[in-house]
């Protein structure tokens, strides 16, 4: 057996070594069962082993692979596992599942699966084209079960009944560049009116991610305005693209490393210019923080990847750090709250990939500062990257999301918010309520109006 999570290890892609490692880990998991209720992989695994009176070695390769297929990389088992590195058993279940996908990818996939992988992986190409033709694209793809969606399911493997997010007509980067060149920022206007408020409290580079860039630029717009309201200058890195998470979760190590190398080269320059990298999507932030250093560890960019990881922050995490840091201050006057622009209480979904970063509930704390009480819901949405969009996973993903639906509805609040655009789409499909990002609620509490679309 070969216990390795390093894709440059010569045994990483060896099929026999992988099978032995799956046996070892499944045996440990079967003896522990602490993660029995986290995702479908574990009940499936335990069921196969229990049918054979506890003999893990009797599992067939097909049964081993079913466990792999049902892992959607929520990462929560890693947080819960007592045997993660540096424990002598060095158990990292999510990374073992990614290794299994990488081995399968290297050995060649069926045509249909390759088409689905390419469609989901080329987010910038798809986003650029779809934003340019948003009016038509949104009509064609916006109705689950429509003829266009059934054709998509047959050709590129995206579940026809899955609710897809609409594309924005104006990309975030376009808005940002126009705003920078057309008028002074809110921060500079505020400073001119009140010289005592002119001291800059920080500088960030907003990594927009595919979700903000192509799908919901309003999140990025409100983020920039909230930061400037708190005297934090904002720039946008030139030359970054998708973080590469779709490639990684498919097991396409080559394409992921290309994406990581390109982004790290740009973001490291931003950090060396004195900026922190702020990422308004938990999946992408997790990738920058944990996956870039691992997959670039044996490249000339290893130190840059570590530098970027150390200076990457969630939007609320950065603001709460500002609030608590000596010599800085977060603006705690919320006129929009007093004017009734935000509710007294909201339901806040804690995304899996936010929990996986182990940074605490910073968005909840930020909402509390704004006078908004958050009812927490910590259930998986069943999307996790691109897993829940695939035709073959759709029904199981809906089953995974059922407890989330129940808890959101039981909370009974009119407004639902969440940091993850992917999870928010699942919440909308399951409950009919369209969540907002917490930073957008904070913007309204500050009295910052929403941009016209």
Could you list the spans in which at least 5 consecutive residues all have pLDDT below 50? 188-195
Rg on CA atoms, Å: 22 Å
Number of domains: 4
Spatial order of the strands forming the largest sheet: 2-1-3-4
- Estimated share of beta-strand residues: 5-15%
The biggest beta sheet reads: 4 strands, parallel
Anisotropy-based shape: globular
User: Number of helical segments?
Assistant: 24
Number of strand elements: 7
Distance between the termini: 56 Å
Structural class: alpha/beta
- State the assembly state of the protein chains: single chain
- Portion in helices: 40-55%
Mean pLDDT: 92
Describe this structure in words.
- Helix 10 (172-182) packs parallel to helix 13 and helix 12 (209-215) crosses helix 13 (217-229).
- The protein folds into 4 domains: 15-107; 111-156, no CATH class; 172-324, no CATH class; 335-445, Rossmann fold (3-Layer(aba) Sandwich).
- Strands 2-1-3-4 form a 4-stranded parallel β-sheet, with helices on both faces. Strands 6-5-7 form a 3-stranded parallel β-sheet, sandwiched between helices.
- The chain contains 24 helices and 7 strands.
- The chain is globular.
- The model is unreliable at 188-195 (pLDDT under 50).
- The longest helix has 20 residues, at 253-272.
- The chain is α/β, with parallel strands linked by helices and 453 residues long.
- The relative contact order is 0.10.
């Amino acid at each position: 057996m070969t216990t390795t999570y390093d894709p440059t290890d010569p045994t990483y892609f060896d099929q026999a070594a992988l099978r032995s490692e799956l046996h070892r880990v499944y045996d440990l998991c079967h003896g522990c069962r602490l993660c029995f209720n986290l995702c479908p992989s574990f009940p499936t695994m335990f069921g196969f082993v229990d049918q054979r009176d506890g003999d893990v070695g009797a599992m067939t390769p097909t049964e081993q692979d079913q466990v792999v297929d049902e892992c959607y990389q929520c990462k929560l088992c890693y947080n819960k596992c007592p045997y993660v590195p540096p424990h002598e058993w060095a158990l990292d279940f999510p990374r073992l599942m990614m290794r299994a996908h990488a081995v399968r990818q290297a050995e060649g996939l069926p045509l249909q699966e390759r088409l689905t992988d390419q469609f989901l992986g080329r987010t910038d190409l798809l986003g650029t084209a779809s934003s340019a033709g948003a009016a038509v694209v949104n009509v064609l793809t916006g109705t689950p079960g429509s003829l266009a969606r059934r054709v998509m399911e047959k050709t590129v493997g995206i579940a026809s009944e899955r609710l897809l997010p609409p594309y924005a007509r104006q990309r975030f980067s376009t808005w940002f560049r126009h705003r920078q060149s057309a008028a002074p920022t809110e921060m500079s206007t505020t400073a001119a009116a009140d010289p005592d408020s002119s001291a800059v409290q920080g500088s960030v580079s907003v990594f927009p991610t595919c979700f903000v860039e192509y799908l919901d630029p309003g999140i990025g717009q409100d983020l920039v305005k909230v930061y400037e309201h708190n005297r934090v200058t904002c720039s946008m890195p030139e030359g970054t693209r998708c973080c590469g998470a779709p490639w990684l979760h498919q097991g396409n190590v080559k394409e992921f490393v290309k994406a990581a190398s390109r982004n790290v080269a740009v973001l490291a320059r931003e950090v060396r210019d004195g900026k922190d990298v702020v990422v308004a999507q938990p999946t992408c932030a997790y990738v920058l923080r944990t996956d870039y250093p691992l997959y670039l560890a044996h490249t000339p960019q290893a130190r840059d990847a570590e530098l970027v990881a150390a200076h990457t922050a969630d939007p609320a995490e950065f603001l709460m750090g500002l609030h608590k840091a000596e010599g800085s201050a977060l603006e705690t006057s919320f006129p929009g709250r007093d004017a009734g622009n935000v509710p007294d209480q909201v339901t806040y979904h804690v995304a899996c990939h936010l929990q996986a970063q182990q940074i605490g509930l910073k968005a909840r704390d930020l909402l509390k500062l704004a006078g908004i009480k958050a009812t927490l819901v910590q259930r998986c949405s069943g999307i996790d990257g691109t897993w829940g969009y695939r035709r073959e996973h759709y029904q199981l993903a809906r089953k995974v999301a059922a407890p989330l639906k129940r808890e959101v509805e039981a909370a009974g609040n009119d407004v639902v918010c969440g940091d993850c655009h992917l999870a928010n789409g699942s919440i909308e499909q399951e409950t009919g309520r369209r969540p907002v990002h917490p930073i957008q609620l904070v913007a309204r509490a500050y009295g910052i109006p929403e941009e016209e679309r």
